[in-house]
Design brief:
Blueprint (H helix, E strand, L loop, with lengths): L2 H28 L5 H24 L1 E6 L10 E4 L5 H9 L3 E6 L8 H5 L5 E3 L4 H17 L3 E4 L17 H8 L4 E6 L15 E7 L10 H21 L19
Helix pairs in contact: 1-2, 2-3, 5-6, 6-7
């Protein structure tokens, strides 16, 4: 990494942290007097757009969106692969208002966590999976009824670029029980913004929004089937953009007898 590149990355993080601190501090005085949707725009949309602008100017990371026409008119459950911090910025700015599942501990982070607490997040205790699933189901259903997008990263945590984690069924279960579709999203943000380290690579992130996926029926079997289709679509889309190696080909049957 060149000295100039390292300096630009340093400036990016400096400005990102400074703007976050100022934005969160200002939110404490303004947000309580705003409706939830206006509060979300002020705290999340505007700052995340600022973060994306800083990413473009200082890191040279831009993005392209494919399938924007697939976004339904009514909010539903969004399921996306998780590779970096970038997609959190993008999805929070693109879908409004949006609530996401996050670790409860994040709400205790000074300034940042306090501002997040005003955005109706689904804060779960990862040490208690059963309680977390019930919370996602109850709070998620409440948010969807209030026309709020619910974002779930089914892998549960960020995974390195070039790999994919097993998808949890919590998002699919929420969609099935609410009689709403899952909006699948795939991207390759980890190629330019790796999970580990400070280094960033300039380039264009591709975000693919798939067609809404509906469950066929209800109950555990429908949930499992929907979840499998969402993960299969995500893996297929990542392969098409070069994020995953090609799927192994099945051996071709040979009907000729050996002689």
């Amino acid at each position: 990494m060149s000295i100039l590149r390292a300096f630009r990355i340093f400036l990016f993080y400096l400005l990102l942290g400074t703007t976050a601190l100022l934005w969160c501090s200002l939110s404490f005085f303004i947000a309580p007097f705003l409706s939830f949707k206006a509060r979300y725009r002020f705290i999340n949309v505007y700052w995340c757009r600022c973060a994306l602008w800083l990413t473009k100017v200082f890191l040279g990371i831009r993005y392209e969106i494919k399938g924007a026409q697939n976004v339904p008119d009514r909010p539903c459950v969004i399921q996306s692969n998780h590779q970096s911090t970038w997609e959190t910025f993008f999805l929070s700015a693109y879908f409004s208002p949006l609530s996401q599942v996050l670790k409860r501990e994040l709400l205790y982070v000074p300034f940042f966590g306090w501002a997040m607490a005003m955005l109706r997040p689904i804060a779960i205790d990862r040490d208690n999976p059963k309680a977390a699933l019930k919370q996602v189901a109850a709070k998620g259903d409440e948010l969807l009824k209030d026309n709020v997008w619910v974002l779930i990263f089914p892998e549960g945590t960020r995974v390195p670029y070039g790999t994919v984690g097993k998808f949890s069924r919590s998002g699919s279960a929420l969609a099935v029980n609410a009689a709403l579709p899952v909006l699948p999203i795939a991207h390759n943000a980890g190629k330019f913004w790796p999970k580990i380290g400070w280094g960033k690579q300039a380039g264009v992130i591709t975000v693919v929004i798939g067609e809404p996926m509906y469950a066929e029926g209800s109950g555990p079997r429908a949930i499992a089937d929907l979840n499998d289709r969402v993960q299969a679509w995500n893996e297929k889309t990542q392969r098409e953009m070069g994020s995953l190696p090609p799927a192994p080909q099945a051996p071709v049957a040979n009907d000729r007898l050996a002689v």
